[in-house]
Amino acid sequence: MPFGRAMTGRMGIGVLLLAAGLAACESAPITGRSRLAPIGDQQLRAQAEQLYQQELSKHTLSTNSEYKALVERVGRRIAQAAETPPEQLWRAPNFDWEFNVIDEPGVINAYCLPGGKIAVYTGLFPVSRDEAGLAIVMGHEVAHALMRHHGERLADQMAIATTTTIGGAVLGAIIGGEDNRTTGAVAGAGLAIAGNMLLLNFSRTQESEADRVGLILAAHAGYDPRAAVGLWQRMRAANSGSGRPPEFLSTHPAEETRIADIRRHLPEALQYYRGKEE
Ligand SMILES: [Zn+2]
Predict the structure, then answer these.
(1) What pLDDT score does 178 carry?
(2) Which one-letter DSSP state was computed for residue 59?
(3) What percent of the chain has pLDDT over 90?
């Protein structure tokens, strides 16, 4: 028999890696964009949970009850919107949502890790200004997680690693070589990258997608998506001249392009806002 147990096991690992790195493509929900299938959500969520706890323990959490209540309220509504997709636009993520406020007045930032682990820095509040402004930012961040952009970014990176440096070894393992250590190293490299999920840079395409989907989430949660125009204008003004840009500005196209894109997507988002006006 050519396919003994050890052989199929080894093939399984190799095929999995190749599938993750090279072969599997899919259409992203909502936008229909063709992309590499993101790295599996379950494993990523365990990593994200660990990273989130580390981050929270490294920073001082805010004791400002007003900020905490605001983030909790807006966050719950955005989360509820994500978990109840209108017209089956996407699959409910079934996240284990968590919200925290980090006390750093100089940092204009927020993030949502896979699994719904959200942090908002206190420096964001003067810029987000009101509840609708915060909903736009949180909608954008949740959209990254909902669209599985972290896993997609990791799949891209693993594909590059596989094709450039270790692809030959992986192929060798599939064909029947003995190099289990190499396949172990590939899996290890993937996990190492996943451990730095907060350092991933999203692509411009993903940022635009998060803007569009974030508007839908905010609208579906009952917030006026038109608040996005002023929000991103204030964000740009607040950020000019500062150091490392916040996540949502780091790789984004020019401000004019972004505002124009948002205006273009507003009619779509407004469909989900109608009847929910506050
Ligand atoms: Zn973003």
Answers:
(1) 42
(2) S
(3) 57
